Structure formats: C-alpha cells, structure tokens
Amino acid sequence: MIKMKDRHITEILDRASIATLSESELNEIRVHSLECMSCRDAFEAARLSAVVIKSRVEATIEPSPFFQTRVMAALREQQAVESVPAMLRLWRSAKVLVSTMAVTTAALAVISFIQPSQTTPVVDQTASAYSAYSVIMDQGADDQMSYEQVLSTIYEDDDDAR
Amino acid sequence: MKAYTQLGSFEGRGSLEGWLTRIATNTCLNMVRGAKRRPEYTVSDLTDDEQSWLEQQSAGDGGEPASVENSVVATDLADRLLSVLSPEDQQALLMIDGEQASIKEVAEATGWSESKVKVRAFRARRKVREAMEKLLSYKNSRVSG
Prior knowledge:
The complex is a heterodimer. Chain A has 6 helices and no strands. By secondary structure, chain A is an all-alpha fold. In chain A, helix 2 packs across helix 3 (37-58). Chain B is mainly alpha-helical. Helix content of chain B is 70%, strand content 0%. Chain B is built from 7 helices and no strands. At the A-B interface, helix 1, helix 3 and helix 4 of A face helix 3, helix 4, helix 5 and helix 7 of B.
C-alpha cells in the first residue's frame, strides 16, 4: 500500500482550485511536499496560478470612450436598413435577375413573332404555285376553260403571291 | 447589440438572463477564437516586472496584488498563462477558479455537460500549473545565473 506521503499530489491540485481544497487535502499536500521536490514546485505553481487568475478576473476592463458612440451608430444604421420597405429591399436584391429575365422574354417574343411572318410568303407562294400548277396540269382535264381564263387564273395567283 | 437584434428569436423557454449569458458567452468565445493565437508559449520573454512580482509572491510577502502596478503585472502574467489554453478551457477556468462559479452554473451558461466542464477545468488547471512551473524554473535560473 502506498503511504500518503508517497502519493504525488498533482491530481489533487488539478482537480479543484486551491481555494476550495479541504483542510485534510491541504495537509496531505504539505506533508507530501516536505519530501517531494517536484510536488513542492507543483504546489507553488498552482498557488501562484490561482493568485494570477483571481487578479485577472478582478481586473476592471473599461470600454473605450467611443464604445457607446459606435454601438449607437451601428443600431441607427441597422434601424435605417430595416425601415426600407420589404418590396424595395426585395427589388434591390433581385433587380438584376428580373432584368435579365425580361430581356430574355422580349428576345424570345421577337423571335417567335417575326420569324413566322418571314416564312408566310413562302408558304403562300407555294400555295399559289400549287394553284397555278393545278390549273396548268388540269388543263387537259378541264377543256371548258378558255386560254384567256387559264392565263388570268395564273396571273391572279401570282398577284396574290406578291 | 446582438441581443437587441436577435430579440425576436428569444422563445421564452428559459430565463432572459440565461439567454443573454449564452449570447455573451458565445460572442466572447468567437472573439477569442478569432484572435491570433501565440504560435508557441515561451518563458524567455519574462519581463523584469513579472520576475519581481513572482519573487514577491514566492517569498510570501506579496499576498494579494494590491497596487495598480501589481495588478497590471499579474493580469499580463495571467494572459500569458491563459494563452496556452483553448478559448473553452480558458472560460471554464476563469469562471470556476476566478469567479467561483459552480460546475452547474458553467454548464448552464455554456450549454456543455457538467462532465465536460469538469474535464475542461481539470485540463486547464494542469496546463496553467505546468506553464507556471516553467516560468518559475526560468526565474530561478535567471536569479542563480
């Protein structure tokens, strides 16, 4: 069995603050420290550490003279930001996206409406040509039409195409 | 500032005091974490004032650091010793050993478990004590040298 004076006391020192150690624990430390140099140094270091930490906590830390001014300025700035209507804040953050979408939509609309009007004459020409073609090809089948009627039908179709 | 701006997030489950304490604690921890840590703790930069203060304390005639000068020296020394600790360990040590807060109070203020608080305080005491031992051995070597 290890005698009390042979047990190192560093664990006692680290378990609690020196100020809160019981009298029996302090006695154990003192007895052991008489014969153990390393534990005596540890006890001295723990005692001084406790003094230093206590003085650190007791030290009064004054805020800088501009602390209050800075805090109040920051508060006013924040309140100013919050007073802007929500829709306006939303618009500020989303205006780039909305503008881009609007331009894209307009471009799509232009492409959709202009492109078909360019192709329409082609379709009409085809239809007229077919009409003229049918007249020409049906010429043999429709013997009742005179030569003038055939020509006028073809020219009418050409005029419609223009 | 933070409490004022986040007042809407207070749900009223706990006390207002506890809520404010938690905000202050987390803000301070973040500030300490953000501060540049000393890369390595060295005892070679022990000043003459600090050495003199340590000698007074070791001789047993210092008692409590009564004068303003002594308080400043002790505070600087404390900052140097505390720099070897993580912000969380610093907080546990300062609250328990400095402000005599109970384990339970620290646990409530920080949101840590009581076991965690005990472990942090134990580890912090040991590290600070070891750092102080280094300082004392350096002081003794300067005196004898």
